[in-house]
Each structure stands twice: as structure tokens, then as C-alpha cells.
Amino acid sequence: MWKPVERIKYKALDDEWPSADEAAKSRLFSSVAIGDISLQQRTWIPAMVPWRSNEEGEVTQDVLDWYQRFAEGKPGAIVIEATGIRNTPSGPLLRIGDDRYIPGLKKLVQTVRAASDGKTRLFIQLIDFMTIRRRPDTQKFLSRFLTISDAHRTLLQMPDADDGVVRDNLLALSLEQLQVVLTEKEWEDMSFGYRERVTDTHINEIAELPQVLPRLFSDAARRAELAGFDGVELHFAHAYTMASFLSATNSRTDGYGGTQEGRVRLPLEVYHAVRENTAKKFIVGCRMLTDEIFEQGSRLNDATYFAEQFASVGMDFLSFSRGGKFDDAKQPKVGWAAYPYTGQSGYECMPSFISDSFGPFGRNINPVAHIRENLAAKELKVPCITAGGIHTFMQAESILEKDQADIIGFARQSLADPDWFEKVRQGLGGQATLCRFSNYCEGLDQKHKQVTCELWDRVDLDVDGVSKTSDGKRRMIAPAWKSS
Ligand SMILES: Cc1cc2nc3c(=O)[nH]c(=O)nc-3n(C[C@H](O)[C@H](O)[C@H](O)COP(=O)(O)O)c2cc1C
Known about the structure:
Layout: E1 8-9, H1 20-25, E2 32-34, E3 37-39, E4 43-45, H2 61-71, E5 77-84, H3 102-115, E6 121-127, H4 138-145, H5 150-155, H6 163-171, H7 175-181, H8 184-191, H9 204-207, H10 209-227, E7 231-235, H11 241-246, H12 260-276, E8 283-289, H13 300-312, E9 318-321, H14 344-349, E10 354-355, H15 365-377, E11 384-386, H16 393-401, E12 407-409, H17 412-416, H18 420-425, H19 440-446
Parallel strand pairs: 4-5, 4-12, 5-6, 6-7, 7-8, 8-9, 9-11, 11-12
Antiparallel strand pairs: 1-10, 2-3
Helix pairs in contact: 2-3, 3-10, 10-12, 12-13, 13-15
The structure holds flavin mononucleotide.
Flavin mononucleotide binds near residues 125, 350, 387, 389 and 412.
């Protein structure tokens, strides 16, 4: 992962914990309305893909066990991981692209309701993503995958050569020479792996995304409603299709790109389609970026405008992240696909303990506060969720006291200790295991390995009945809380 040059090492904060009485009077443990429902506390577990589904994208027993463990901590809300809205194979990512997924998802809802004694609200994150392929071996790319064109013939000064001869000549070139002969896109396909963009409108499926996506999202939301979820979170953040429409790099000329108005058009159409296809009480919010972080990306002023648009049409919540883009991702190894959390934008999305003078904690607080202030100034009321390096009660309470957000997201902290919420609420915060922000979990995600936390995945590994990862080396879920 990318690291700031300063490389200053940080430890988890050594803050004080509230007594049960103080917690009961705190803002963090006060209720908050979201649309027509309310959360019992202002704590939120943001979406995290744990690689627990199967090739069919189904809710497996591992998925149920995973979310049951989080629900035992009784946070205000859990957002189920990014779940694919299409009915197409996408590896072991959870899917909601067909009615056959409804029974499994229903079970997931029931599991969370039971484990949290009905205290935790449950949302599911709906995602669409475009094709990305693994980085090919250079030889294979030149001899098989590359489409030979007249431009290659011209640059190689062999106008009449057949494809085989052109390929042989390309294979004999150095990388520097190849970079001159290949187009920018061909060079990227060879050195990073093929990746579709929303601007590839010469591809029919991409040109037609604005016609297709509202329906796919709204069908998925209807299934989520039938399964019993309290609502959906539309994934408009990070490296995926909808965030790419919002991106400053979206130069589509069909009315769905270019200006801020053009870039927000499809996300708004998706929202309206979802709203029309679900009951009024069903919660519809989104996850979006305060900043794309890479140089040509959208900035805070874009996000402020987008948030205003989303709030104006009646979105029920706005959950903020930052970065997490392909645009500045590191070159993957041959045989691996690019991963959107390897560049600086990835660092800003999941800051690690090796940081700069600002540090890894709360890097998104001020941007979210700015957006929220702007919404308030325009009398737009929508709960805003902030996240990023938050792991203590005092951090969270101070954000709420300063009116910088309405709800606090704890992603990696809840992985480190799913009981954090109950421990703090009961005045036992000192017993919480605090995240080190080493990004061990993110490293597993990058390799598409079952996500666990280094702080507990080897604990009591040999105890009977402990379920283990496929390599047998790690436990799958955090051990039960033994109150000390
Ligand atoms: C293993 C892992 C998987 C993640 N998957 C998702 C995801 O599916 N959707 C999403 O919006 N964010 C995802 N994230 C980002 C988190 O939701 C969160 O924004 C980020 O970790 C920063 O918050 P934190 O400092 O509280 O961990 C993931 C993070 C991790 C560590």
C-alpha cells in the first residue's frame, strides 16, 4: 500500500472511556432518525467485503456467522457488504441480481435481528462494477490479445506485413519502444490489465449504462425490501460504476458526463428509480466520496454539490468515504488485477498507522463537516455518516458534539472488536480491543482471501467447534466476549 513519505508511526489513542451512566447520557448512544425510522444509537458499521460468499454469490453459512458476530455488538446499524446488482458471475461476491437470492438474504436479515435483539438496523450496499481483467504476461499480450492495427504497421514501417509478422516485430521491441508503438490504452491493457471505463462509449453496454442501471438498482432494492432490510445504500463511492459517473474524469458527451450536472444525472435517476420501486418507509441512502484524491479527480466542491443534489431529492442518509480509486492504483503483478486501494487514494480511504503529521485518525472529519454545514445552510436535513480511523469513544463523541456528523462509522474497529459498542455502552470500554490500523484486513481483501483481524484470528484456534479459514490457519470470526 502507498504510504506518506513522513512514515510517522501512530498507536491507537489512549483515551478515557465513559462509565455506563456517562455512555447513556452521551450523544453517541442517543437515537437518531433516518427517514421514517430511527437508529437506537449513532454507531454504524460501514460496508466491508469479507469474502464469505460463494461463486454463486449466495448467502452462505459463513456469511450468516460473520454478520451474526457483528450484530452481537448491537451497533445502531450494519451495512451489508457491497452486493452485486447483476445476475452475472462475479466470483465470491454477494449478489442480489435475481429473485432467487431473496430467501438467503431473508435469512441474513433474520439472523441480524435475532443476534441484536432487534436493536440493529440493517442496510445492504448495492454495487455495480465494470469489467477489469488481470495483468497479462507481456509475451502473451503481444502474441495473442493485442488487436493488430494499421497504426502499428505504420509505426513499425511495415505497411504490408501480416499480423504474425507485426507481432514478431513487437515481441522484439524493448518496453520503451513498445510504449511508443502502442496506444495509451493498449499500453495500459498490457501493463495493468484491461479495464473498462464509463467513457468507453464505443462499447454498447457502456453507452447504454444510463438506460440499464436505474432498472438494475431498483430491482435489487425491491429484492432487499422483500428480504426485510430496513433500506439500501447505493454505492456511489470508490472505484465502481456509479462513482465513475460522478468523477471529474467522466467526459461522456451524452448528457451523463462533463459538467457537475451531467455527472450527477445518472446517480439521481438511479435514486428516483429505486424510490419509485420501494415503499416510502424503505430507507434509501448512498455512499459517496468527499474527494477522489488523485490529481484529475473530483474535489470537495464537487462532493458538496452532489450531496446537495442528493439531499434535495430526499435521500435518507449520506455516508462518506474518500479515495479508493483505480486511477492511481499501483501496477499489479502479472496474473493479478489492479486493486483500487494501493495508491494515495487508497491510503486516504483506509489510512494505516504509518502516516504523515496529520495522522491516520479522522482524515475525513473536516470534509464531511464542510458538506454538512453547507447542507444545513441550505436547510437540507439529511443524516451524514463519517468514517476513517475512528476507534475511541472520545473521538466519536467529540465529532458529534462539534456537530461535524450525525452518525459515526467504525469499519476496521468493528472488525477488531465487534463488541466495542456493547462494551462501551456498558461502561467497559477499557476491555475493548483497539484496531492497530495495520491494514492486515485490507491486505487479505486485496488477495480476495477471507477477511479476518490479526488481533484475534489465531486466538483459541484449536478449541473444538472453531470455524477456520480455507487454509485452516485462521479462525473465521472473533472469539466470544468473555467479560473480565
Ligand atoms: C476489508 C475491507 C472491506 C471493505 N469493503 C467495503 C465495501 O464493500 N464497501 C465500501 O463502501 N467500503 C468498503 N470498505 C471501506 C470501509 O467501509 C471504510 O470506509 C474504511 O475502512 C475506513 O473506515 P475505518 O477507518 O473505520 O476502517 C472496506 C474496508 C475494509 C477494511
